[in-house]
Amino acid sequence: MVEMESENNPIIQAIEAYATPLLRDMGLELVEVQYRREGHGWVVRLFIDREGGVTIDDCASVSRQLSAWLDVEDLISHAYNLEVSSPGLERPLKKREDFIRFAGRKARVKLQEPLDGRRVFTGIIDRVEEDGVVLLLDEGPVTLAFDAMARARLSL
Q1: Is residue 136 over pLDDT 70?
Q2: Among the CATH numbers 2.40.50.100, 2.40.30.10, 2.30.30.100, 2.60.40.1180, which is that of 96-154?
Q3: What is the pLDDT of residues 67-126, one digit of tens each?
Q4: How far is residue 155's CA from residue 118's CA, in Å, rounded to a whole number?
């Protein structure tokens, strides 16, 4: 899948490099890191998950450890809020492994460029191939290449 602009941000890259092994040691997965300006100021937001879901204690523990690290590293020179949470029911699908894990579930995929005049596809994840995923749509199966995807997430 294509990296979105924010994922090329050095602050996001540093947080991912620190948080990924930390979370793995805790039995957790880093789903996504966001760093952006919102109405009330800057926000660093981590979405974490694990088989069976995350607890409030998981989020609090990660928040404490990450906050301490961010204070020491001083990566961000201005005020910001740190948020750690579950990705929710419509979690992003960022890696090939995500599509494998959620095979049989409904997903919504937005492409960078239209395919047969269409950019958004919603269907059941049928199978994952080397370079893409097959979604079962109402009108039949469609193969979508990972490198053509702008975004993908589970759908209700």
Answers
A1: yes
A2: 2.30.30.100
A3: 999 999 888 888 999 999 999 889 899 889 889 989 999 999 999 999 889 999 999 999
A4: 18
Q: Are 89 and 154 in contact (CB under 8 A)?
A: yes
* Distance, CA of 70 to CA of 154 (rounded, Å): 31
**Which tokens hold the place of 1?**
């899948």
Specify burial of residue 66 (Cβ count, 10 A radius: 0-12, 13-18, 19+).
Answer: buried
In the structure, what pLDDT confidence band is assigned to residue 4 with cuts at 50, 70 and 90?
very low
The CATH-assigned architecture of domain 5-85 is 2-Layer Sandwich (3.30)
- Three-class SS of residue 145? strand
Three-state helix/strand/coil letters over 35-85: EEEECCEEEEEEEEECCCCCCHHHHHHHHHHHHHHHHHHCCCCCCEEEEEE
* Other CB atoms within 10 A of residue 85 CB: 17
